[in-house]
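The following block was generated as part of the benchmark described in Methods. Ligand: uridine 5'-triphosphate.
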Amino acid sequence: MIKKCLFPVAGYGTRFLPATKSMPKEMLPIVDKPLIQYGVEEAMLAGLTDLGFVNGRNKRAIPDHFDINYELEAEIAGSGKEEKLSTIREVMAACTFSYTRQNQMQGLGHAILCGRTLMGDQPFGVVLADDLCINDSGPLVMSQLVSLYKQFRCTIVAVQEVPESEVDKYGVIAGEALSDNLIRVTDMVEKPAPSEAPSNLAVIGRYVLTPDIFDIIENTEPGINGEVQLTDAILTQARQGCVIACKFEGERFDCGSVSGFVEATNTIYQKRLDRV
Ligand code: UTP
């Protein structure tokens, strides 16, 4: 059973400067909840309650968010405002939180490798909290990936069709279709030019990784942008064994970009209004 989930949160979030100058982008709120809490709730709903964070400098706000704020609790105790803390209290009661640091931002692959000490020798989920995922009609993406892991026992990635003009922002896969929504990965390219992309199926920020990924990352040369790319390491897994890509059910917002962030905010706010 998978119990662990890794959250790489050490990036600089330069697309949100100046907001992210002294605050992690993962703490930006969609309506009234920080991005990282949406990610943590998704992991918790998938049964992943042993949570590890690869943090960076200036990111104290994340460990503080998942801890008790005694002054605040005392101030609002017994008032109607306590209700506003119910969701964070729920995740704090259900999950454990561990932290390590990435002291040089050398890319996602490197960030995952920094999490080795927290994840150990077991398969684990990975959530990039700047991808916000929702699903009105069933389980969220991480739950979908965990179910697939139980079936295939290999690394599982979530993919989504994107416009051809946008493939250069993503890791892009190619492979053989196993069903309408499952593909056995045979190729994977990080940020390809549209003319060189093997498909328009882009990997989004949800994974289940098997622990051999760590040794593979250690032996992976820096790729595009001079960074150790997780995509290159997963391609090695696909060539040595098996990697499954899942066209997940639900919607995903790229909250690492300002336009995706605004779209997510409008969508979630509208859903709130529709509920009352
Ligand atoms: P991004 O590339 O989207 O994040 O990485 P970024 O670098 O912070 O954003 P911009 O482009 O400067 O605006 C995806 C995820 O990987 C983490 C980020 O925190 C984000 O959650 N990451 C990225 C790390 O933890 N370490 C890194 O070295 C790079």
